[in-house]
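FAQ

Q: What does a record look like?
A: Structure on top, sequence underneath. For example:
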């Protein structure tokens, strides 16, 4: 298949002094492709080979002036595959990159405002980088999806900077503003407009006609001040980056390092893990938000006034987020002092934002004025939507709902922020079950983007759309689920916690359980989660479930024993972990120990934690609790911290393969009823079924 030349996309101007300017002009809705870059290196080779050329500057111009346009990862991956199909093009590409360095002529990159991903990688080829404008940002957002920055970026960074800064830039999702990029040496100069850049280039050439010496181990003071990066070493891009850095330290020649980097890049970009992370964390999030935006725009109901009942951690967080979104909020509790205490959360958060220069004092004052505190039900009558966020107890919530309902207007949406209580049952306590809905926020509300929208059989379309409009206004990401104990996120999360307790009951040391969880990619081990939410609360959740199978009963009994021994969790200063008087966590005390503790396979334990959650996620999909696999992937990654490198529960099933997954679940069946495999999943395994084909879902329940 012939590869397009892309030559017509470039505009070339030969300036006096031997400076050649090459501008790549992209049409509206056109993205930077591998083909464009292949055409560029051929042009650069041609011009730099000429004796009358002393330097070459290059830039990208988006003709629709939309420098904030979202990247099209699908198009980029497709263009990479097209070049891979033509191995001669790829070999020629690598050779020409090396060749243009041999001319010893200056390459200058003109960095526009908002330069990300492959565009920034292209700019790193330059010997000198000039930022145009001061208001933009630069970075590698694709790092969040496990990708390796493209175009030989790692090898180039190791020429420009040291290993530590290379690892940071190649693995973090930080978007640096131009002043920080200057201080860190990512760009070398900044001008206001492109026309000013030519004068700076001439000035630089007058100082030095040859490429400036690159000092490998010069670390700017700003780089030294940076905090240690948080790196997920299970991401394919991070694994590849670490290997390249290790080979560099071992003395690998640059050309060999570059060749290896391209090989690693192509492997990582086509890996199932990277596809899954892009699908969930990029296209999945965008799809959910875009759909919610469309619903919000079509919904005529006004959402201007919010009422929140319960000024505890969740209620105060919801009130703050609503006020930040511009809504008028009534925060109500049993007395005004408690409501004021809840409002103080907004005060503390905004104080910090003001101190950091991220919020103006007048904006803070306006936000706080939008939160009105009260203890009177009569103040709820004007609310467009009301969210109750009181303690997770059926009796308490149903009484509250019954007491409040008479004070609400007929069109008011009544939402319950509950983790597991059936919405249909709660709705029966209200005067208008059709206007009742579940909105499960996650803690801390101002940092967790997901909201689980739970529909009972009686929730009407108007209520659902009004709730989704509210979520759109709060800039949250929704998944819509059907009613049932635990809904989706809590239900699958309970299985993660259950498996942790089950392992302890098997005699596996608690520290080993936590190590296995961390090694597998969970941000927090199940036993620490239990300490944080408190053991009595988990026991209370079990009490609310309609039935308990054998493993759940055993876990419940163990929690009762711990609570009776005074171990209630972090707040009680004793749980699975020990705590000092100030609540500081100590090291786990392993009170149980398996006879074969030294030979316990952490990978097998980790597999159990991943599989048990994914297995119940399939049950939810099969039962209609969630409609599509992407809902499960978003809910598991954003809601419960399911190992991010998997891309979510259904992505995990695809990567393992259903036949292997079912076989391994059968091997774990002796650990409890949570391992029972539905016949429908066995049938799919026989068919070698996959939930996704690349970026598209295969699931069709009809």
């Amino acid at each position: 298949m012939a590869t397009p030349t892309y030559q017509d996309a470039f505009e070339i101007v030969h300036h006096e002094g031997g400076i050649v300017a090459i501008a790549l002009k992209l049409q509206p809705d056109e993205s930077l492709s591998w083909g464009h870059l292949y055409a560029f290196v051929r042009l650069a080779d041609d011009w730099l080979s000429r004796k009358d050329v002393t330097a070459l500057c290059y830039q990208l111009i988006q003709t629709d002036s939309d420098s904030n346009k979202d990247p099209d990862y699908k198009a980029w991956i497709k263009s990479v595959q097209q070049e891979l199909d033509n191995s001669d093009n790829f070999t020629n590409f690598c050779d020409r990159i090396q060749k243009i360095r041999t001319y010893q002529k200056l390459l200058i990159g003109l960095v526009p405002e908002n330069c990300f991903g492959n565009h920034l990688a292209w700019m790193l080829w330059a010997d000198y980088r000039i930022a145009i404008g001061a208001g933009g940002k630069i970075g590698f957002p694709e790092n969040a999806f496990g990708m390796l920055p493209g175009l030989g970026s790692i090898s180039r960074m190791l020429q420009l900077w040291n290993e530590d800064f290379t690892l940071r830039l190649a693995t973090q999702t930080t978007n640096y503003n131009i002043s920080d990029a200057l201080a860190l040496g990512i760009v070398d100069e900044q001008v206001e407009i492109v026309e000013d850049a030519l004068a700076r280039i001439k000035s630089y050439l007058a100082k030095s006609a040859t490429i400036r010496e690159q000092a490998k181990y010069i670390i700017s003071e700003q780089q030294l001040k940076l905090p240690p990066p948080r790196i997920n070493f299970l991401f394919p891009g991070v694994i590849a980056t670490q290997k390249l850095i290790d080979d560099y330290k071992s003395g690998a020649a640059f050309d060999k390092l570059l060749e290896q980097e391209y090989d690693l890049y192509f492997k990582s970009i086509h890996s199932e893990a990277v596809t899954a992370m892009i699908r969930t964390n990029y296209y999945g999030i965008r799809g959910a938000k875009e759909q919610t935006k469309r619903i919000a725009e079509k919904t005529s109901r006004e959402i201007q006034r919010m009422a929140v009942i319960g000024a505890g951690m969740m209620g105060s967080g919801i009130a703050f987020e609503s006020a930040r979104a511009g809504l008028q909020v009534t925060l109500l509790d049993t007395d005004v002092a408690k409501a004021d205490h809840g409002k103080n959360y907004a005060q503390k958060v905004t104080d910090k934002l003001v101190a950091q220069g991220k919020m103006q004092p007048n904006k803070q004052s306006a936000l706080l004025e939008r939160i009105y505190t009260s203890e009177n039900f009569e103040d709820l009558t004007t609310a467009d939507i009301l969210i109750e966020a009181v303690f997770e107890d059926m009796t308490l919530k149903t009484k509250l709902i019954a007491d409040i309902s008479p004070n609400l207007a007929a069109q008011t949406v009544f939402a319950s922020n509950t983790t597991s209580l059936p919405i249909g049952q709660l709705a029966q306590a209200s005067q208008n079950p059709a206007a009742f809905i579940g909105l499960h926020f996650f803690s801390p509300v101002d940092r967790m983007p997901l909201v689980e929208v739970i529909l009972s059989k009686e929730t009407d379309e108007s209520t659902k759309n009004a709730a989704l409009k509210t979520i759109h206004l709060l800039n949250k990401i929704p998944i819509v689920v059907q009613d049932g104990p635990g809904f989706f996120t809590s239900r699958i999360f309970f299985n993660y916690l259950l498996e942790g307790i089950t392992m302890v009951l098997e005699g596996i040391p608690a520290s080993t359980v936590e190590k296995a969880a961390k090694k597998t990619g969970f941000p927090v081990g199940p036993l620490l989660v239990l300490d944080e939410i408190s053991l009595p609360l988990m026991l209370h959740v079990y009490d609310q479930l309609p039935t308990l199978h054998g493993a759940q009963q055993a876990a419940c009994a163990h929690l009762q024993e711990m609570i009776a021994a005074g171990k209630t969790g972090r707040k009680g200063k004793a749980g699975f972990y020990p705590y000092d008087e100030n609540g500081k966590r100590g090291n786990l005390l392993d009170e149980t120990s398996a006879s074969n503790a030294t030979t316990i396979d952490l990978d097998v334990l980790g597999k159990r934690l991943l599989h048990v959650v994914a297995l119940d996620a399939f049950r939810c999909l099969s039962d209609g609790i969630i409609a599509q696999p992407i809902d499960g992937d978003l809910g598991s990654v954003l809601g419960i911290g399911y190992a991010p490198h998997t891309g979510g529960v259904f992505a995990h099933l695809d990567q393992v393969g259903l036949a292997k997954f079912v076989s391994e679940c059968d091997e774990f069946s002796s650990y409890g009823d949570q391992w029972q495999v539905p016949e429908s999943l066995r049938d799919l395994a026989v068919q070698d079924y996959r939930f996704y084909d690349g970026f598209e879902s295969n699931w069709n329940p009809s």
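Q: Is there anything notable about this one?
A: Confidence is low (pLDDT under 50) at residues 209-217.
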